[in-house]
Design brief:
Helices cover 42% and strands 21% of the residues. It contains 10 helices and 7 strands.
Length: 259
């Protein structure tokens, strides 16, 4: 019964037919504990993927996306821990690659789509002590605030439609991990990211590689990247495809320097 209760809690989101299949296997799990563990892990993975699909569903309003993240805040760190999601570590490593250790304490960094502060934690541990966090979800930012690594919080979406309440040429680095995707940072927001980055500063982000082919980005994002380079706004330092970025999914890391 204990297994059934635990599994029911983990699998509240799955369909009736999926629930029936797990119930039929209960007898086998009673005799084979390793199957019990595997089933719980599989069910947990289904739940996380369902939440990811929810927040990246095409056509959702900004308010709906914010509500989904507010509701996810309590379990977000468990669901996307570093064993599953490598984005924050990879993005932090790229920041270290462009800023020498002796300059990290004074470098002003904006963590864009900061969420609960996974990336901020990584940056802080690597010597970056002057960190700002931007995210539209108040509940996610409350989790980030509890880490005590950020000096300022901005509760906003970044968009191509309006400027952030940030002066031009402010940040040494604007960095994002997991902020790109359907209904999240739009392609046109690259121009706003550039505006708030100082000359000689860096724009860095990591994302799921498959998201480059989402309707919001396909034929748009990389075309804008190339146009911004050709027009002398920035220079591309790196684009790298990363295996096992989120579990078995590939990721992509981008690094640019403002000219």
């Amino acid at each position: 019964m204990g297994w059934a209760i635990r599994t029911g809690l983990y699998c509240a989101h799955i369909t009736h037919s999926q629930r029936r299949i797990w119930t039929e296997r209960l007898f086998h799990f009673s005799y084979y504990p390793e199957l019990n563990m595997n089933a719980t892990e599989s069910c947990d993975k289904m739940g996380v993927n369902s939440k990811i699909k929810d927040v990246y569903t095409p056509g959702r309003t900004k308010e709906e996306v914010i509500d989904s993240y507010n509701n996810w805040a309590d379990t977000y760190e468990h669901d996307l821990n570093p064993d599953k999601f490598r984005g924050p570590v990879l993005a932090a490593n790229e920041c270290c690659a462009v800023i020498p250790e002796k300059n990290r304490m004074s470098a002003l960094v904006l963590d864009l789509a900061a969420g609960t502060g996974f990336l901020g934690k990584e940056l802080h541990q690597k010597g970056f002590k002057n960190l700002h966090a931007l995210d539209p979800s108040t509940e996610m930012l409350e989790k980030a605030r509890a880490r005590n690594v950020y000096q300022k919080f901005i509760i906003k979406f970044i968009s191509e439609e309006e400027e952030l309440p940030v002066n031009a040429d402010t940040y040494d680095i604007v960095v994002s991990s997991g902020g790109m995707g359907q209904g999240h940072i739009p392609a046109g927001a690259l121009l706003e990211m550039l505006r708030i980055t100082r000359k000689g500063g860096y724009i860095i982000w990591s994302m799921r590689e498959e998201y480059l082919r989402d309707p919001q980005y396909d034929g748009i994002l990389e075309a804008l990247i190339d146009n911004m380079e050709e027009s002398g706004k920035w220079s591309k330092i790196k684009k790298r495809v990363i295996p096992n970025y989120y579990e078995e999914k590939e990721g992509a890391v981008f690094v640019f320097k403002k000219i």
